[in-house]
Amino acid sequence: MRNPSYARINPRHETPVFITGQGEVLTETMAIAAWLEARDVERRISFDPSSRQADRMHQLMAFVNTGFTAAFAPLWAALEAEAMEPAAKSVLRAFGTARVIERHDKLEEMIETQQFLLGDRPTLADAVLVGVARWLDFHAVAERSRWPKLAALRARLEADPAVLYATALEDGGSDPGTGSCTGHVALAELIAQFGK
């Protein structure tokens, strides 16, 4: 996303970016989740919009997308700032570590005794979480085991074939997965086809 050509897809050089079947570019996690939810007529990854479960799903997605994700911002800033003084990086790391731990504590309290965030199947809330939760390991903030409910949830999500497939693609693999994905398109091809 740092490549200048990526700006043709998203001028802010941010992820995620979703391209609809009609070739429209949609950015921002919550907007993409809303798009998917509106088209999930079988309610495989969402709930009836007027239900209590949908309200709870939106609450969890909003928490993960805002406070939980934002807690990592100081850690990313310290990692990516090449010209920053070591003392400033140290302060950012300490602040970020404390915020990440506090947000994990809050999420641990919010997780109920069920397979996934909202029951016995993964939903959009789990999808939003799985992409960010791994940052705990990447930044070596603390051991997963500190939060047993969250650790168990992450283990279940990370064992999901779709998550395994997506992770393999991110790591440069080309395993076709379970066949649910109809194909992977290289970023350069997407930029050439849908970039403005």
- Summarize the main sheet: 2 strands, antiparallel
Question: Pairing-aware structural class of the strands and helices?
Answer: mainly alpha
Strand order of the largest sheet: 1-2
Uncertain ranges: none
Number of strands: 2
Specify Rg, calculated over alpha carbons.
Answer: 18 Å
Strand portion: under 5%
What report would you give on this structure?
The chain is mainly alpha-helical and 196 residues long. Helix content is 54%, strand content 3%. The protein has nine helices and two strands. A two-stranded antiparallel ribbon has the order 1-2. The longest helix is centred in the middle third of the chain and has 25 residues, at 86-110.
Task: Tell me briefly what this model is.
With 196 residues, the chain is mainly alpha-helical.
Notable characteristics:
two-stranded antiparallel ribbon; globular; 2 strands; 54% helix; single chain; mainly alpha
Give the SSE map.
Blueprint: E1 17-19, E2 25-27, H1 29-39, H2 52-70, H3 73-80, H4 86-110, H5 124-133, H6 135-138, H7 148-158, H8 161-170, H9 187-194
Antiparallel strand pairs: 1-2
Helix pairs in contact: 2-4, 2-5, 3-4
